[in-house]
Amino acid sequence: MKVLILGGTRFLGKALVEEGLKRDHDITLFNRGNNKEASSEVKQLIGDRDGDVSQLKNRNWDAVMDTCGFAPHQINKIAAVLGDSIEHYTYISSISVYKDWIPLNITEDYHLQSMPQDRLKDVEEGRISPYEYYGALKVLCEAEAEKYWPGRVLHIRAGQLVGPFDYTDRLPYWVQRVAEGGNIVVPGRPDRPIQLIDVKDIATWVFDMAEKRKAGTFNVTGPDHKLTMEELLNTCKSVTNSNAKFVWADEQFVLDHHIQPWTEMPLWIPEQFPLEGETKPWKMCISVKKALDNGLSFTPLEETIHDVYQWEKVRQDSVRKAGISRNKEQELLDAWFQKEKKETL
Predict the structure, then answer these.
(1) How many C-beta neighbours within 10 Å does residue 338 have?
(2) What is the rounded CA–CA span in Å between residue 194 and residue 179?
(3) Which of 9, 15, 154, 19 is nearest to 93 (CA)?
(4) Quick check: pTM over 0.85?
(5) How do residues 218-241 score in pLDDT, each as one tens digit?
(6) pLDDT digit string (tens) for 190-212?
(7) DSSP letters along 254-307, please?
(8) Angle between helix 229-240 and 170-180 (nearest 10)
């Protein structure tokens, strides 16, 4: 196929490029040219989906893969130049489109987020960041793509992507922290469920679907069984040959010490979550049955952790985007042990 990847130089984009080249497809990237790591085996068109997209005019591709559409006007701008010159469009959406994560096994027909119309205008004109309404904007992007290419869009509602080059640092935090060993504070229950998917698996499946011109909306996360936080951390411990000891701290205790979920404690959302003025049970359990029925498969967790660990050993950047500082973690550990000591007296 002739494939256009919008983005293509970071994380998922890199994985898509690698998978496409492995299959001998003709790959073209369209991006702003800020990242110089693009493969020499691909063509690169320089432009900006918020500005000049003229490089896309009068060209044809079999498939387009959109990794970086955050607002509907960006989809609109691309559609205006591509029109019917493409056969298949993959839009990377998110499980954040869902209004909440309360029920077990949320399917693709669960209710979605929305946002005020006036705020959409603020996003389009750059007055507010698209991340402020991330999930709701992804919903609107899905609808915009479907409007231009009805029946030809593969909507990927992706969960937490993991693997090398993961610039969110969520799984990398835990891999590196476990490798360092010692007492490690972990919020919540050991059997708390967690979902994630290796970026290679999503890239493989996207190409499988695009080659068959399959369209529709799919939750794409993993694995295909219940994965617990304890299993994830024990796998990190085994792969890194660590002496780590996990200290499972009560969620409310961690919150009372002003530790931020998801950022300071990556991959953790409190199971009792404040929503619309109430505290509600937050399951974070997304059904992937539809994708499994269409061939989605998974890399063994050990392999994914190994890949992340090897990348951690050679990465150059020292500033991490997620994870608690060692000093703050030690303060939390001291407070937890002091609490336990008092309770045993």
Answers:
(1) 10
(2) 20
(3) 154
(4) yes
(5) 999 999 999 999 999 999 999 999
(6) 999 999 999 999 999 999 999 99
(7) HHHTTPPBTTTBTT---SEEEETTEEEE----B--HHHHHTT-----HHHHHHH
(8) 50
